[in-house]
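Technical annex, item 7. During the second reporting period the consortium partners agreed on a shared format for inverse folding records so that results from different sites could be compared directly. Each record opens with the tokenized structure and is followed by the designed sequence. A conforming record, contributed by the partner at site C, is shown below for reference.
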């Protein structure tokens, strides 16, 4: 059990000294809170037994080590943004990064902190009581800020007039923070190209960024923008607005506004139907209900449906319509990277937590929105898969099947060898007309895995226009792993295409899609080299197309 929290006055020793002139944080004397130190050593005491407790001293190495977690720039930023997402209140969030001075500012106009509770953001397992609906573990801010770099300060105000800040006290032997009065928060004005004081409630994180987390080009930003739009599709424009600003030595270099993502649903993805509001299909979820697992305490909200083929959208709205053009770029479009069934909290998709390793058609889209009984991992980019979850997934799989949704578990996911994948895919390409047609090949094409003397290595599979083997029509690169490891397949494939004058690269792995940062780089390289590329999930090709 956590003992009474104390704040040490500035004139007393900070850490490691038994003599203190302390003040309870619940004291009403505001002036006593200002210019005071908060000792994290004292505040991170936990009871090890019923009769006594042991002081757990938090070193600076341990404190900054909280940032050594499996975040990406998107998940680390979302960890901070999630803290200001509410059910009804509209909140504006602005991210500013100066890539030359290595500075990071994240500013919001949410409710702000009570001065005496600002320190809690730096303590493990302590949550601040707000109307936010996304806070879960009480550690997110500390993990995320330390992932980005080193906190300079956290500023806040509850009324837009009285401002305070918490700084790290790096002179202390152990991790400690100090609470100070502060100048007003400044937000960057795009119109005036300068920092301007805010006159609303809100908070601002100010961080010195690690070199490895600095933006290097516009793709870094556009990938972040796309990820935020995809993950907050149900929030942007409703309860949150997000602005991204890129500075170089204090000067505006570029900026972006995150736009709402519209999910278009169809009653019949293959044909399409016209609804009363001239929409393609019903434009509502085919399944929208609560589901309680009969054998566990797990309760979820199910949202399942299908998205239309682009051609149907084009025929209905016209080639130049915004809805059609946006759909072509949407991750939630037909065969898009977000197609499939995903776990979510408050309708924010949990990264890397698809419903099992399931095959999915090009149109199936669904969310398993967690209500109760399923925990996320510490970094919130996955779920805790215990026995109850396994039982829940088995029951849900059967339930969805009874409702007409084909979602099948792949027990061999990530267990199959690359050599087996190559052998099976080659055999199917040689014998299955449906697969060849799906990938854009004809009966005149031949396929081989033999070493044909390609410069730079041996492609996994090569397609030729005919038996003469004189003209390469396709290069296949196959990887067991997904994620960042797919970059190797991309580089190898482009190299093989270049050395054979082949203009078609096909990458096959077990993930649903290429990571967004890899795909953005591949688009640039492929365009420059005049190479067309495709990505396909191995299980979908073998088990769905070849059936």
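Designed sequence (site C submission):
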């Amino acid at each position: 059990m956590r003992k009474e929290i104390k704040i040490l006055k500035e004139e007393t020793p900070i850490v490691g000294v038994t003599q203190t002139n302390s003040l309870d944080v619940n004291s009403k004397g505001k002036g006593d809170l200002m210019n005071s130190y908060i000792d994290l050593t004292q505040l991170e005491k936990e009871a090890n037994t019923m009769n006594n407790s042991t002081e757990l001293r938090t070193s600076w190495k341990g404190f900054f080590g909280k940032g050594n977690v499996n975040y990406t720039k998107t998940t680390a930023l979302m960890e901070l943004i999630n803290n200001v997402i509410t059910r009804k209140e509209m909140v504006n969030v602005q991210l500013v990064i100066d890539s030359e001075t290595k500075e990071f500012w994240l500013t919001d106009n949410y409710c702000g902190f009570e001065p005496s509770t600002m320190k809690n953001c730096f303590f493990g397992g302590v949550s601040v009581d707000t109307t936010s609906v996304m806070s879960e573990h009480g550690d997110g801010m500390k993990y995320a800020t330390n992932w980005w770099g080193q906190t300079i300060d956290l500023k806040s105000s509850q009324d837009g007039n009285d401002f305070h800040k918490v700084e790290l006290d790096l002179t202390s032997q152990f991790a400690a923070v100090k609470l100070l009065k502060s100048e007003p928060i400044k937000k960057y004005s795009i119109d005036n190209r300068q920092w301007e004081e805010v006159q609303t409630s809100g908070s601002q994180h100010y961080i010195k960024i690690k070199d490895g987390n600095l933006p290097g080009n516009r793709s870094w930003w556009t990938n972040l923008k796309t990820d935020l739009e995809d993950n907050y599709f149900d929030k942007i424009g409703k309860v949150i607005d997000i602005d991204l600003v890129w500075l170089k030595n204090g000067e505006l270099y570029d900026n972006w506004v995150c736009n709402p993502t519209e999910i278009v649903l169809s009653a019949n993805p293959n044909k399409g139907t016209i609804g009363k509001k001239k929409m393609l299909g019903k434009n509502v979820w085919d399944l929208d209900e609560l589901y309680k697992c009969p054998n566990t305490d797990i309760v979820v909200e199910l949202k399942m449906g299908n998205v239309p083929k682009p051609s149907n959208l084009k025929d209905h709205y016209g080639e130049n319509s915004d809805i059609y053009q946006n759909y072509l770029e949407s991750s939630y479009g037909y065969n898009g990277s977000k197609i499939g069934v995903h776990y979510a909290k408050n309708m924010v998709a949990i990264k890397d937590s698809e419903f099992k390793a399931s095959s999915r058609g090009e149109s199936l889209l669904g969310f398993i929105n967690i209500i109760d009984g399923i925990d996320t991992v510490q970094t919130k980019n996955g779920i805790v898969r215990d026995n109850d979850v396994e039982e829940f997934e088995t029951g849900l799989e059967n339930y969805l099947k009874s409702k007409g949704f084909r979602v099948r578990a792949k027990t061999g996911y990530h267990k199959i060898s690359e050599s087996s994948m190559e052998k099976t895919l080659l055999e199917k390409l040689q014998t299955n007309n449906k697969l060849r047609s799906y990938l854009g090949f004809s009966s005149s094409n031949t396929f081989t895995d033999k070493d044909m003397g390609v410069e730079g290595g041996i492609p996994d599979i090569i397609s030729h226009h005919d038996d003469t083997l004189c003209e390469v029509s396709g290069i296949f690169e196959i990887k067991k792993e997904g994620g960042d490891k797919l970059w190797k397949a991309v580089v190898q494939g482009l190299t093989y295409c270049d050395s054979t004058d082949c203009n078609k690269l096909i990458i096959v792995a077990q993930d649903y899609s290429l990571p967004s940062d890899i795909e953005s780089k591949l688009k640039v390289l492929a365009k420059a080299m005049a190479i067309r590329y495709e990505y396909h999930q191995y299980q979908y090709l073998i088990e769905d197309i070849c059936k």
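The domain at 287-402 is CATH 3.30.230 (Ribosomal Protein S5; domain 2). Residues 1-39, 41-56, 271-276, 409-413 have pLDDT under 50 and may be disordered. All partners now use this format for quarterly exchanges.
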